[in-house]
Design brief:
The chain is α/β, with parallel strands linked by helices and 293 residues long. It has a six-stranded mixed beta sheet with strand order 1-3-4-5-2-6, with helices on one face. A two-stranded parallel sheet has the order 7-8. It has two domains: 206 residues, 3-Layer(aba) Sandwich (Rossmann fold); 74 residues, Helicase, Ruva Protein, domain 3 (Orthogonal Bundle), CATH 1.10.8.
């Protein structure tokens, strides 16, 4: 009988959560928030993202805590809601944030740092307060992309007193209790630039790395759909794809698919894929070898 009662309570609690989630998918931010927050469409789930097994396990655990946050709070615990994503460009950080929002059926808000950071004293901290007030009022996933622009070390040579005050404000806002349990995700390509005091503010720090050979193959096969990919020479393909980021691999596959469509074909050949991967590798080398000014 006790188990039956618990099952009914869980069913009622899940129904109540669904009722709360529906009106949360609010429209684009207005007023003072209009330039600070960008509402991004969410089309992905975790199954759509190719990630390291450990990353999937950690994010799935965060999603589970968020889904059962009422149950945790009844036991005096809070769900994980502050995540730091670190890794090279194109490694899937933004895509994973979108997939996490998709798993939770929550809107994804991207904080526009170019609008947030101001040259006027106190203005940036005031705007940051607006963002966190929104976070505390409206449940969602809030993404601070390129976070090193905001969270750089307070002893940085290029730092100014105003940015130190902004970072101090951010640290204080992160410590405040959020009744909505909104998920705050910060992403950076340069974790070494971040202030060490940030580390203890996050519930999880997730490192994104270049994909392995198995992940490269999985990612390419997914990206080539709905085209038919017959017996591809995966040895040559993997050799050409090594060290390329997830974003570069997806774009190479997408270009190969577009070529097949224009050629009025429904299949992808090894040469199609190799050509596009070689293009992406040349682009990377050209960028790295470009003279710095």
């Amino acid at each position: 009988m006790a188990e039956d009662m618990r099952a009914e309570v869980e069913k009622a609690r899940a129904s109540r959560r669904r009722q709360v989630v529906e009106p949360i998918a609010i429209g684009a931010p207005r007023g003072e928030l209009q330039g600070l927050l960008e509402l991004r469409p969410v089309h992905l789930r975790l199954k759509d993202v190719v990630l390291d097994t450990l990353l999937v396990k950690i994010i799935s655990d965060v999603v589970r805590q968020q889904r059962r946050r009422d149950w945790l709070r009844e036991h005096g615990k809070k769900p994980s809601r502050r995540l730091l994503f670190v890794g090279p460009p194109g490694s899937g950080k933004t895509m994973t944030a979108e997939a996490t929002a998709g798993e939770l059926s929550l809107p994804l808000f991207v904080i526009r740092l170019e609008q947030l950071i101001s040259r006027y004293m106190g203005d940036t901290a005031a705007k940051l307060r607006l963002v966190f007030d929104q976070c505390f009022k409206h449940r969602g996933v809030y993404l601070f992309d390129e976070f090193d622009a905001l969270g750089a070390h307070r002893t940085s040579v290029n730092d100014v007193a105003e940015m130190r005050r902004v970072l101090n404000s951010f640290l204080q806002f992160m410590e405040e209790d959020a009744p909505t349990d909104s998920l705050i995700i910060c992403a950076t390509n340069h974790p070494g630039l971040l202030d060490r005091a940030l580390l203890r503010r996050y519930d999880q720090v997730l490192e994104f790395r270049p994909p392995t050979a198995a992940e490269i193959k999985d990612l390419l096969v997914r990206s080539l759909r709905p085209m038919k990919a017959g017996r591809l020479a995966w040895g040559a393909i993997l050799k050409e794809a090594v060290e390329l980021s997830q974003a570069e691999l997806v774009r190479a596959a997408d270009d190969a698919v577009k070529t097949a469509i224009l050629d009025e074909r429904n299949n992808i050949t090894t040469d199609d894929l190799l050509l596009r991967l070689q293009e992406r590798r040349r682009m990377r080398l050209a960028f790295l070898d470009a003279p710095k000014t």
